[in-house]
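pls design
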């Protein structure tokens, strides 16, 4: 199969969208499928076996890591040479619209995948007036696709309530060898606790931005003077967060990747995830695979895998006090934390990427097969 991807974000940016896409490109290379990726410029020219076409974009003033590629950009030369069987637009906003237009021009099926709760983020950013216009735009865009993929049951229900059509769940997996309790080490424990390895260690892995609500960790930490906190990641809110946590036992590591990231997860006693607008929450599943219990909001896609009092604890998504109470419950009951962490690991062991992508390829193939007679006739006429 020949698949062209249009994504609003790619390397060097690190987030859940990019993580999923990289795993998918690795999978396609291993299965012998051809793929082509269009993304904002600044990343590698190739990933796995996939050529990457970097396109000029405009950086957002409040989020320089994000570049918007205008939808009128002409990529027809690349697509004509590639001759895709299907186009997949990932988290479509602007560049995704270009991919949609190209799919319609080439008469090939188009899959759109929804990854980010931008209407929800608008509310968190103080731009609630934009919530309904965002829903109107995304509904109009997605409803032109042959299939709309969403990462969780919570997100699918929300999209259906907003009038999105032809929805299906495309879940996520986790590398259970990379993220594994066996990576727990004295070295990383010492590093992330600031030289106090005997102290309880809270961990958060996240993009450091306003909508992630990492400031909610401050009162939780203040209520537990014996605990230490490690924050892994980077983003536009980092300097503000470093000032907020300056007088606390908190370590900021910046981005970690590969083995270092796996060691950071395994070193923790509790993973805390304050965000309430996650469509899936890859980092929560990575923590679970590492044998670490998760404290997460009772909202969003994390509800598919963070099961209250089974693989972690859920808190009221609008209550900082409830978050702090959930964290304190695990820190003061280490036997409970270990029990939930063990169950979390067992749950994650059944979430492998290959099974997720096998189902995705089945969905691709069904769309291509369904459209094949029409596509052949149109190409012959052309």
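designed seq:
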């Amino acid at each position: 199969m020949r698949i062209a991807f249009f994504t609003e974000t790619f390397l060097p940016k690190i987030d859940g969208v990019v993580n999923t896409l990289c795993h998918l490109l690795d999978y396609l290379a291993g299965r012998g499928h051809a793929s082509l990726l269009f993304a904002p410029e600044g990343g590698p020219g190739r990933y796995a076996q996939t050529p990457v076409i970097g396109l000029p974009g405009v950086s957002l003033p409040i989020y320089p890591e994000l570049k918007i590629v205008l939808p009128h950009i002409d990529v027809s030369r690349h697509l004509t040479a590639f001759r895709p069987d299907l186009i997949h637009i990932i988290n479509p906003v602007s560049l995704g619209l270009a991919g949609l237009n190209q799919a319609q021009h080439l008469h090939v099926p188009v899959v759109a995948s929804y990854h980010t709760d931008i209407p929800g983020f608008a509310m968190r950013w103080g731009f609630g007036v934009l919530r309904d216009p965002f829903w109107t735009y995304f509904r109009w865009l997605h409803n032109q696709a042959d299939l709309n993929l969403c990462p969780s049951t919570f997100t699918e229900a929300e999209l259906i309530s907003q009038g999105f059509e032809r929805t299906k769940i495309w879940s996520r997996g986790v590398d259970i060898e990379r993220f594994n309790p066996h990576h727990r080490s004295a070295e990383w424990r010492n590093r992330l606790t600031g030289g106090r390895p005997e102290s309880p260690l809270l961990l958060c892995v996240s993009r450091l931005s306003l909508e992630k609500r990492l400031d909610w960790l401050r009162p939780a930490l203040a209520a537990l003077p014996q605990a230490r906190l490690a924050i892994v990641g980077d983003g536009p809110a980092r300097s503000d967060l470093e000032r907020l946590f300056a007088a606390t036992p908190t370590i900021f590591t910046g981005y970690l990747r590969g083995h270092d990231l796996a060691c950071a997860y395994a070193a923790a006693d509790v993973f805390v995830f304050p965000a309430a607008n996650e469509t899936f929450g890859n980092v929560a599943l990575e923590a679970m695979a590492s044998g670490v219990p998760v404290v997460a909001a009772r909202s969003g896609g994390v509800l598919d895998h963070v099961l209250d009092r089974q693989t972690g604890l859920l808190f009221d998504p609008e209550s900082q006090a409830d978050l702090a109470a959930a964290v304190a419950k695990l820190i003061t009951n280490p036997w409970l934390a270990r029990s939930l962490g063990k169950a979390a690991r067992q749950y994650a062991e059944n979430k492998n990427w290959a099974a997720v992508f096998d189902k995705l390829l089945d969905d691709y193939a069904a769309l291509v097969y369904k459209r094949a007679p029409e596509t052949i006739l149109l190409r012959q006429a052309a």
